[in-house]
User: What shape does this take?
Amino acid sequence: MKEMYPKNGKVILHVDMNSFYASVEVAYDPSLQGKPLAIAGNVEERKGIIVTCSYEARAFGVKTTMPLWEAKRKCPNLIVRKPNFERYRRASLAMFDILRTYTDLVEPVSIDEGYMDITGCYEKGSPIEIASSIQETLQKTLLLPCSIGIAPNKFLAKMASDMKKPLGITVLRKRDVPIILWPMPVGEMHGVGSKTAEKLASINIHTIGDLAKGNDIQLKQLLGINGERIKQRANGIDNRLVDPDAISEFKSIGNSTTLPYDSTDEEELLGVIKRLSNSVGARIRRKDMLSNNVQLMIRYSDRKTVTRSRKLDNPIDQDEEIYKAAKRLWTKHWNGEPIRLLGVTAQELVEKQVAFKQLDLFSYEKEAKKEPLLKVIDELKGKYGNEILSKGVKLPKDKKPRDNEHGTSFEKDFLSD
Assistant: This one.
């Protein structure tokens, strides 16, 4: 089978579980097979939100994030189950255990998807035979369907796995890019969200092909370094390796600021911590991340620096929760001496879909309802600046800032591209 593999390149698979939460529920309760099924945060109340749904439900127009009342209007026979995150976590771990029987080079990227480098697996069959075996094994062993993309790199493998669902296997070669990918709307490209698509439309880039041929200087001005990255992707170029340890690496995003003057005014200092927490929260939400640990940095007027962190019971991404954790650290560790610098850092970041948070029915609904509001707030801040919607304490007008007042970012962003 060695002749079925490239001499110099790689063979990458992207395994994407189909309608994962709903499929897990069907695996536990076979009577749900073939029926329109939705997972919702609150199955009794009209305010419930659809987390995911089966393909049978999608045929009626039911979609993720749709209000439960609307989903039931579209599909009167819709069966609704509440989320069971521990069940999904166990299924995910079992799924990745199966993938690792084929190769050690498995990189989980969320609870229900991951990359595999099978370049050295030619003794186990051709790439299509291996993909078919994985699909059949997951279906037979766990009763879970998946779609698989086969390509020379991670980006193309991801794009390929999205092309045939459910239970699809798609091969996407670099030479296929102009024919298959370039005619697609740029918003359908992995790594290009709706905001980026809107920005690209402003410079007359509407398709992946337009992006592939885009002007380098114009793209950099519009999107910074990400403009160069997504143009490379649009041309089928992606040199990232499949890294089994990538998801467990230590990651952090933080901000610090030197105060305008040394201060012992606790109300004022908590206001600074509040603003730093809001900034960190906005940034980790933009990355679709959650934090398992919050760190507070305190630097006194004599330059002595203290850093203390707090491990969290559940991963968080909301400003108020970050501030609450930082405030507890402040209350416990500030010695009353004048402060020169403060910093707040969200540590041990994980991708949202990977955070196996044990939510009860109430907290799930509470967080789901907050998310649209948080997105609107972040959009306003992004457009008009952080002060457009500010809470907390403002600096007194009679105190002038130091000439060297500044804000510092100390981050190691996860999945930055």
User: Anything to note?
Assistant: DSSP finds 14 helices and 13 strands in the chain. Residues 93 and 111 are 8 Å apart (CA to CA).
